[in-house]
TrEMBL record:
TM segment ranges: 21-45, 65-86, 93-113, 125-141, 184-206, 212-235
Keyword set includes Zinc-finger: no
Protein name: DUF1275 domain-containing protein
Keywords from the UniProt entry: Membrane, Transmembrane, Transmembrane helix
Keyword tRNA processing: no
Length: 259
């Protein structure tokens, strides 16, 4: 689900990518709200808060909100920079660096209390880390899926879903109906898994606090591991088939020569 790009990418690849990482985003979203009362998967609301503090002359209070926006942007910038460098150097694993960086950041935020910090006194720092990690994830997913999948926020998703469901009612007999159904199913899957992430994240937060983020990091690790296992299994099977076909063709040639 991470490796394939362009024409080699299928609906299944996007569905796996969407379900895994939207679940992670849902968990991060719930932990951000419950632990530090801050939105950490999107920046839309932060623009409103920044504008309010700016207009009322509370410039010191306005600074964190513009930094929230900046850190999400920086996450997206860094993520795509790593991807572009990997593409230029013709690396097979363009997703590896952004994903490992996201795992590291989630683990760092998950153990925040164990670093002798108190959540109430360091909410901005945790918010910066989580917003940066979600910027990383959103840029990676957008790049790999060619803007088909977005996992960290649902506003644009519900807009697209509303448009596509409306189109389905008007163009049921259109040749592109199959693709339209797939797009609708993909977006519904993202919504369901994001919601599942929010629910599970909330339940876990009341049990283990910010260490819930370790679960999100584990899910990414599992996704990367499964992706590698599937790739090597497919690669090995193709290699085995190729050898088998070569052996068959060699046997046929030998039989012909003997005749």
């Amino acid at each position: 689900m991470f490796r394939h790009r362009g024409k080699n990418r299928t609906f299944r690849h996007n569905l796996r990518l969407a379900s895994n990482l939207s679940l992670v985003a849902g968990i991060v979203n719930s932990v951000g709200v419950l632990a530090i009362s801050t939105l950490t998967t999107n920046v839309t609301g932060h623009f409103a808060y920044f504008s309010e503090e700016l207009i009322t002359g509370q410039f010191t209070k306005a600074i964190p909100f513009i930094l929230y926006i900046l850190f999400f942007f920086l996450g997206a910038f860094v993520s795509n920079s790593f991807i572009e460098i990997a593409i230029i150097n013709k690396k097979k694993y363009i997703h590896t660096t952004p994903m490992f960086l996201e795992i590291f950041l989630l683990v760092l935020a998950g153990f925040w209390n164990d670093w002798n910090f108190k959540v109430g006194e360091n909410t901005n720092q945790i918010a910066y880390i989580l917003l940066f990690s979600m910027g990383l994830q959103n840029a990676l997913v957008t790049k790999i899926s060619q803007s088909t999948v977005r996992t960290t926020h649902l506003t644009g998703l519900f807009t697209d879903l509303g448009i596509e469901i409306s189109q389905y009612f008007f163009y049921r007999n259109h040749p592109n109906t199959v693709n339209l159904k797939k797009n609708i199913f993909l977006k519904l899957s993202i919504i369901v898994f994001f919601f599942a992430g929010c629910i599970s994240g909330t339940l876990l937060f009341y049990q283990i606090g910010t260490k819930t983020l370790l679960v999100a990091a584990t899910l990414i690790t599992i996704a990367l591991t499964m992706n590698n296992l599937i790739f090597y299994y497919t690669f090995t099977r193709r290699k085995f088939r190729r050898k088998k076909n070569e052996q068959r063709s060699t046997t046929r040639h030998n039989l012909k020569d003997n005749r």
